[in-house]
Amino acid sequence: METFSDEALKRTHHCGQLRSSDIDAEVRLAGWVRSYRDHGGVVFIDLRDREGITQVVFDPDVGGEEMHTLARAIRNEWVIAVKGKVRPRGEDRVNPKLDTGEIEVICDELNVLNRAQPVPFEPDEYHSTSEENRLKYRYIDLRRTEMTRALRLRHQICRVMRAALDEDGFVEVETPFLTKSTPEGARDFLVPSRMQDAAFYALPQSPQLFKQVLMVGGLDRYYQIVRCFRDEDLRADRQPEFTQLDIEMSFATEADVMDVTNRIMRSVCELSGKSFPDEVPVMSFAEAVRRFGSDRPDLRFGMELIDVSDIVKETDFGVFTGAIDAGGVVKCIVVPGGAEMTRKETDGLAEWARGFGAGGMAVTKVAEGGALETGIAKFMAPVAAGLIERTGARAGDLLCFGSDKTTIVNRVLGELRCKLARERGMIDPGAMEWLWVVDFPLVEWNEDENRWDSLHHPFTAPKVEDMDKLDSDPGSVRSRAYDIVCNGLEMGGGSIRIHNLDVQEQVFRLLGISHEEARAKFSFLLDALSYGAPPHGGIAFGLDRTAMMMIGAGSIRDVIAFPKTQRGVCPLTGAPSDVDHMQLTELNLRIMDEPHNQ
């Protein structure tokens, strides 16, 4: 067992703090051995902690032979403490990659605080290590600079969010984790109750109902950085448990909520060295989908969707005319310089489009003089001049067409513009294009179940001017919902809520939620609305996604200390796992069949 004095733990500096101004200072450092180099008579190590790296030198002429012998036994990831004097490295040995690259510490006292077995992977070699292995040994992965930086930035983001909200008079209030199961668009995680037989709590998908009740309770301005839980299929930007900044305001309009959000995100961007506009542009849902094929458009590049139905219906190309006759549309995007793409590449677009429900992808290239060549050029020749004028295409560009139902065309071309922009290097990696999307439809038709569904949630208020269409034409009713989007990612979303009980019951009827079902699931909210609810609204945006965007990570798993895999598994702890039979008995539960995953 290693022995050391308390004095060895009294660090004077972190490993990333020393500079040339500290030369000749006596310092104490402690951390992990990042690398080890034995140059015969002298040993060099890089000592790492969360602040950075310092080179430490062990010279037998300074620390003595016993210390030098111990230094030669040190290996990577051992935990050590050193004392010594700061000295310059010399101009020919400066390491410009390190903040401490101009200095080193010549050690005169070494304490081994703990030895380490050979690690499954070196923190600096994470690129060649599987993610599953990194998550299984997360405590090693967390030692690398990128993870430390991400988690510290996440902490700082929370700090500036709280500061901005405190300045605006918001009160942080915690809401329950053990609550009632309510339909919110995803499956609930259920928790059996030991004290109430055959009854279950649900982990909250969001604090939606509680924050509305807080408004009825007169809190006026609430926020919470809160854990939320959704049992859904995972992607790179999804986790079964995630964190969001949740906000609710009384006596507020859409503009009020958007203004508060802009101030918060401006502070976050300033902290992270990112740009944020003086005024965030606002675009309607209808315009966003029409121009970009998505309600979260990426504005860092062009290639907008252009409706050419009226032009191509004059051709003999049955694919286009058939789609138009069936009530669909024909749209296209212009790919700058896309004429250089090979036949194999353009044929690949057709196969790719089928994966999004399209029948294929028609293309043609623009030649000199405005002529069209290859692909469907012979069918488009009679209307070539009209297409060139409408689209603004130039020689060397590629036209990609979608023809089908409007929803399919928008989806396919919306995805295609993003795919081609990424692949063709059209995106400025440093750009930050923010946008508010408003006036979402209140409901959307569920063809499988032959009923209306809420586009957001059933507590979203309809626009006042559309109220008279709730019963007669619900599909045309716009909601008072809004999303804030950055670089094609939805960063947050919210709405002005329904605060009138009669309107809430009318929306429930539209959604096919009976009076009895509404009382069973939402009785406490409905009761609250009947006792003097103020007009109110709010927003929630993902902390994980915000941190991912600010740090430039590829996945939210890179900004979460202990994330789950895409199968919802924690490789570090082995969760989810079996539980003791006695625990099941206390809960009056019994496993009926063998687990499906075994």
Stretches where pLDDT falls below 50 for ≥5 residues? none
Evaluate the radius of gyration.
Answer: 30 Å
Give me the number of helical elements.
Answer: 18
Second rung of CATH, namely the architecture of the largest domain: 2-Layer Sandwich
* Proportion of residues in extended strands: 15-25%
- Average pLDDT number: 93
The end-to-end distance, rounded to whole angstroms, is 42 Å
Helical content, roughly?
A: 25-40%
CATH class of the largest domain equals Alpha Beta
CATH-wise, what's the superfamily of the largest domain?
Answer: Bira Bifunctional Protein, Domain 2
Largest sheet entry = 8 strands, mixed
Overall tally of structural domains: 3
